[in-house]
Write a structure and sequence with these properties.
Blueprint: E1 3-5, H1 9-17, E2 21-23, H2 25-30, H3 35-39, H4 50-54, H5 68-77, E3 81-87, E4 94-99, E5 107-111, H6 113-116, E6 124-129, H7 148-160, E7 175-182, E8 187-192, E9 201-206, E10 214-217, H8 221-224, E11 227-235, E12 244-253, H9 257-267, H10 277-280, E13 298-300, E14 307-310, E15 319-325, E16 331-338, H11 349-357, E17 361-362, E18 367-368, H12 373-379, E19 387-397, E20 403-414, E21 417-420, H13 421-429, H14 436-457, E22 468-472, E23 479-484, H15 489-512, E24 518-521, H16 531-538, H17 549-558, H18 566-577, E25 583-586, H19 616-628, H20 641-674, E26 684-688, E27 692-697, E28 702-707, H21 729-739
Parallel strand pairs: 1-2, 10-12, 13-20, 14-21
Antiparallel strand pairs: 3-4, 3-6, 4-5, 6-7, 8-9, 8-11, 9-10, 11-12, 15-16, 16-19, 17-18, 19-20, 22-23, 24-25, 26-27, 27-28
Helix pairs in contact: 9-20, 13-14, 14-15, 15-19
Subcellular location: Nucleus
Domain RNB: 298-631
Pfam family, one: RNB
């Protein structure tokens, strides 16, 4: 029989009167006795009885969102502003809105449930600036959405008009959300919060701290206990403290390594599917050989002493270097980059796939390639002793590191050696080795040291992060040991020449294509971003100035405590967190070249040219440079600034997600390493809040928040007075004893 499925009640009733078999979707699925199918239905407002399903729990009445037409009028008149909502990681009752098209405000602060008004991280919202006397002070409390006791206390204070003590007395320009312009909801990973036996509705705890809990209906809560699940938000009623959603699928058991890896990939929107057949069909057939036709418009550098220097185990070798003495006493230094665009032709399936992926993603136990491994690990990789196509930048440089001239060309090279940083350092330092490779490395080092000093003199920043490296079991890929990444002279030797190549290419492509150059900028942070850094330095008697990058660099250089050498490292880590995000952009959309600046590197113009195997931005730059020097043909999309900016927007997103995934992978493997293991390690107090300490364990690159708890385990313990901490564990224990006596 024919069955009509409709959620239109009137239509369903009429159909039944005409003798048709008609069901609502929920009624129909209920006939299958498959509870997991019912769980996948959208949770509708009318199916949720607040009193019946939640008892007497207090709910919040949010302000009504204004209409679309009123938002449009308000934005046009200046009453409202539009921006992207970014929830706080430390306090779910606070957020920032990054404002579009406002000369006065780049960023506005939002505090309190009603002002947040059902916004979710990454939503595009309309906001109204509050009167200055209502501007808020950021809370000194660390408040987690998972902590109902702390959250309920703050909400109660908000309702009664009490003020929660802030980090400082300084008020921040604040606003309230009046409407949601665009929801950017996605599917979220997490777990179900434990509910009362027989409960129909359950709270879902997202893995991402900036996402609120989600109320879902589930008939399989017992089966889903201790499992990672995926949930979709459907709507957020005015009368509900939490948004409503529905169950999507189970990912696996909580704590299982494969499950947790799947969570990392899903949460960070990492494209990790197998390469489609259409993409693989674009690859060259093996055996691949170099033909005479391939050598047209290429300079043969196979006799040059070219070497690559990379981390151990690196198979996608993007770059190689050389340095030779010229007859006039100057040096010729060269950076040779894999010529990926020879294989990845514009608008092919291979090109479009790489464009969408945007970047290779490096996790602790795996690599998710932007390009198929035939290219990334073989034909494009500048492996030692093998002939490869390259895109070369060569400089004539004086003894004191002044650049005489620069040339760009396609080439063919044959690397003499693919070394690790450690191997290159050993060769450079061994006075008994004086072969061509050793001499080349020493010349490169001498010039790189001078280039680095000039860059630092201009105000380039040396920042820190807590990076670690794991030794993994060869079979299970479980972590066996963890060490801090060691940086040698050869690390910054390579870095300086890659920076020089990127800057040289940026200048060239902007000269050739001023309206459609793909560049990378790093905006100077607002001075208010440095408040935590300034305050931290003052605790030890140092003054940090940050009006310019040069002032900041000099301040950080001077903030050294001989008795506590790690203090300066912590300041630099804190400075890193004050920075803005570096982004790709099309030059045609910036009217002032001053906006091209890269704050961190202290250079007026910059791009990415040196890693085309793992970054699509570099492929764009290679194509622009090749077209400009007549080494390759151009095509319409390459010189279309609107298309280029759209690509840049995707690359910025993919690059950011890849960074988040890499950090999450390190965190996962750190937790796996500590599983069933007890150890004593020195930790440093990174920040002190009213109810928590942020602790850093440098050896493991681990940062965590320790909440103050009372004897019942509730997180309402607080420091009653300002406490100064020394960098050792003993004082932390003493403070806990004082508060919980």
């Amino acid at each position: 029989p024919i069955v009509l499925l409709t959620d239109d009640i009137a239509n369903r009733d009429l159909s039944r009167q005409d003798g048709l078999i008609a069901f609502s979707l929920k009624e129909y699925i209920s006939t299958f006795n498959r509870p997991e199918l019912l769980d996948r239905l959208v949770l509708k407002e009318e199916s949720f009885d607040l009193e019946k399903d939640l008892g007497k729990r207090k709910e919040i009445i949010f302000p009504e969102h204004v209409s679309v037409s009123e938002v449009q009028r308000g934005i046009k008149s200046g009453k409202y502003l539009q921006g992207t909502f970014q929830a706080s990681r430390e306090n779910y009752l606070e957020a920032n809105v990054f404002v579009q098209d406002s000369e006065k405000y780049n960023q506005l602060f939002v505090q309190g449930y009603r002002n947040l008004n059902r916004s979710v991280h990454d939503d595009v919202v309309a906001v109204e600036i509050l009167p200055e006397q209502e501007w808020a002070i950021p809370f000194s409390l660390v408040i987690d959405d998972k902590d109902d006791d702390q959250g309920d206390l703050v909400i109660e204070q908000e309702e009664t008009g009490l003020v929660v003590q802030g980090i400082s007395s300084k008020r921040t320009p604040s606003c309230r959300v009046v409407a949601i312009i665009k929801r950017n909801w996605r599917q979220y990973c997490g777990i179900l919060q434990q509910s009362l036996p027989g409960a129909k509705f359950h709270l879902f705890l997202p893995h991402e701290r900036r996402i609120p809990k989600v109320r879902i209906e589930s008939r399989q809560a017992e089966e889903l206990k201790n499992s990672r699940v995926m949930v979709q938000i459907d709507h957020w009623p005015r009368s509900s403290r939490y948004p409503h959603g529905h169950f999507i699928k189970t990912l696996g058991k909580l704590g299982d390594k494969e499950t947790e890896n799947e969570v990392i990939l899903a949460e960070n929107d990492i494209l990790h599917h197998e390469f489609p057949e259409a993409v693989l069909d674009c690859l060259p057939k093996l055996p691949w050989t170099i033909t005479e036709e391939d050598l047209v418009n290429r300079i043969d550098l196979r006799d040059f002493c070219i070497v690559s220097i990379d981390p151990p185990g690196c198979t996608d070798i993007d770059d190689a270097l050389h340095c030779r003495l010229l007859e006039n006493g100057n040096y010729e230094c060269g950076v040779h980059i894999a010529d990926v665009t020879h294989f990845v032709r514009p608008n092919t399936a291979l090109d479009l796939e790489a464009r969408e992926r945007g970047t290779t993603v490096y996790l602790t136990d795996r690599r998710i390639d932007m390009l198929p491994v035939l290219l990334s690990g073989n034909l494009c990789s500048l492996r030692g002793g093998e002939e490869r196509f390259a895109f070369s930048v060569r400089w004539e440089i004086t003894n004191d590191a002044k650049i005489v001239n620069t040339i760009f060309h396609k080439s063919i090279i044959k690397s003499k050696s693919a070394m690790t940083y450690e191997q290159a350092q050993t060769i450079k330092d061994d006075s008994g080795m004086n072969d061509e490779i050793a001499l080349s490395l020493r010349r490169l080092h001498s010039i790189a040291a001078q280039l680095r000093q000039k860059r630092l003199d201009r105000g380039a920043l040396v920042l820190e992060s807590s990076e670690v490296r794991f030794q993994l079991d060869t079979e299970t890929h479980d972590p066996l040991s963890v060490v801090n990444k060691e940086l040698r002279e050869t690390n910054w030797l390579v870095e300086e020449f890659m920076l020089l190549a990127n800057i040289s290419v940026a200048e060239k492509i902007y000269e050739l294509f001023p309206d459609c150059a793909c560049l990378r900028k790093h905006p100077a942070p607002p001075i208010s971003n440095f408040d935590p850094l300034v305050k931290a330095a003052e605790t030890k008697g140092f003054q940090v100035k940050a009006n310019t990058g040069k002032e900041l660099a000099d301040s950080l250089d001077g903030a050294v405590l001989c008795a506590h050498p790690y203090f300066n490292t912590m300041l630099r880590m804190l400075a890193t967190r004050c920075m803005m995000q570096a982004v790709y952009f099309c030059s045609g959309f910036e009217s002032d070249m001053k906006s091209f600046e890269h704050y961190g590197l202290a250079t007026p113009i910059y791009t990415h040219f040196t890693s085309p195997i793992r970054r699509y931005a570099d492929i764009l730059v290679h194509r622009l440079l090749a077209a400009g020097i007549n080494a390759d043909a151009t095509f319409p999309d390459l010189l279309n600034k609107r298309v280029l900016q759209q690509i840049c927007n995707n690359l910025n997103y993919r690059h950011r997600m890849a960074q988040y995934a890499a950090r999450a992978s390190v965190d996962l493997h750190t937790q796996l390493f500590f599983k069933n293991m007890n150890t004593d390690e020195d930790g440093y107090v990174f920040a002190v809040r009213k109810n928590a300490l942020q602790i850093l364990l440098p050896r493991y690159g681990l940062e965590t928040t320790l909440f103050l708890r009372d004897k019942d385990g509730k997180s309402n313990g607080e420091f009653n007075e300002e406490v100064k901490f020394e960098n050792n564990k003993k004082n932390i224990y003493v403070c806990f004893e004082r508060e919980n006596r």
